[in-house]
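Weekly modeling sync, notes
Attendees: S.R. (lead), two postdocs, one rotation student

Agenda item 3: backlog of single-chain predictions. S.R. asked that every request posted to the team notebook include the full sequence so nobody has to chase files. The rotation student volunteered to paste the first one in as an example of the format we agreed on. Action items at the bottom.

Example entry:
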Amino acid sequence: MIGLISGTSMDGIDVAVADLSINGDVVELVPVQCAEHPFPKDLLEKPRDLAEVCAFDTSLGQAFGEVAAGYLPADLISSLGQTVHHEVQDGDCLGTLQLGQPAWIAERTGVPVVADLRVRDVAAGGQGAPLASTLDALWLAGMVENAPAIALNIGGIANITVVRPGSQPIAYDTGPGNALMDAVMEVLSNGERRQDTNGEFARRGTVREDVLKKLLTDPYYAKPWPKSTGKEHFNAEYLQGFPTVQAEDMLRTLAELTARTIADACRAHDASTVVASGGGMRNPVLVEALTKALDPIPLKISDSLGLPRDGKEAYLAALLGFLTWHGVAGNTPSATGASGPRLLGSITPGDGPLRLPEPVTGPVTKLNVGDPKCVD
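Predicted structure, as returned to the notebook:
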């Protein structure tokens, strides 16, 4: 399996290669390799009209296809694409749009492609996110005998999956991850830098408690789950109503905002441990703030449990496509709010006719992550 995704930060195209199989009710995932490829610079601006939507969909599909071609052979490719809009009103998700046309991926590689994985959950009344809840619930199932464990991903938006003993998992977006910090950096650098690499600027600043207090009044944080958000809400325009402060202080304050809102959500569920992944874990200032905000709840990195922090979402894409290919529902209704389990996505044929395996008829309850294979 090859999994592909470009997250809300649009800082790269993530790819993961995994060997996947089903043994009874257990999915076996063996990581082979993962990497990040540069996001096409001419696509960094979201499309504004129908002609630009068409061009973006085509160009990103071609870019995804080119990346995937470098990791062949494969039996199946799964693409979560690039979310360009996620429409939420009054707590209901009315629609979601991911671009990166899978036909170009199939044409370039000759391999069947599973794509457009979110919208079926939305059509069933769900938020279409966080789909990471599927991987997290299966993966952490063995860690929750006595107390809840939480999987955290910090991309442009931060999300958690709460896996609880004897209960269905829940998952939701806690609020901004890197999105607001990235927006400040882009303005500060006149578009030359899209992120505060290694927290270089944030480390020079101090938390402005007056600004942080105002930021924390956003009604989103108090909304009940399931809920989801995106850069439609947390963006550069969002910050225009706040006091003007030195850029370094704003970056440090926004890192604290991300850390505190995540920690508040984790405490609300009596977490015994938090397993973190995503691009936000590259920012040492954010990691330090989060560790302090969570204390005494231990913060672990997903690498320690076998899934690289930078590749986890691409492995998620691979898993979701694998489940669809085998006739297994890929959403977690208790997490997304959908009316029931659903097969996700659409399948684009490769060079030959589609030959799907016999559907798996029993439940899938656990994910085992094996030792990574060595590759040249």
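Discussion: group reviewed the output briefly. The chain has a mean pLDDT of 92.
Action items: rotation student to repeat for the remaining queue; S.R. to check formatting next week.
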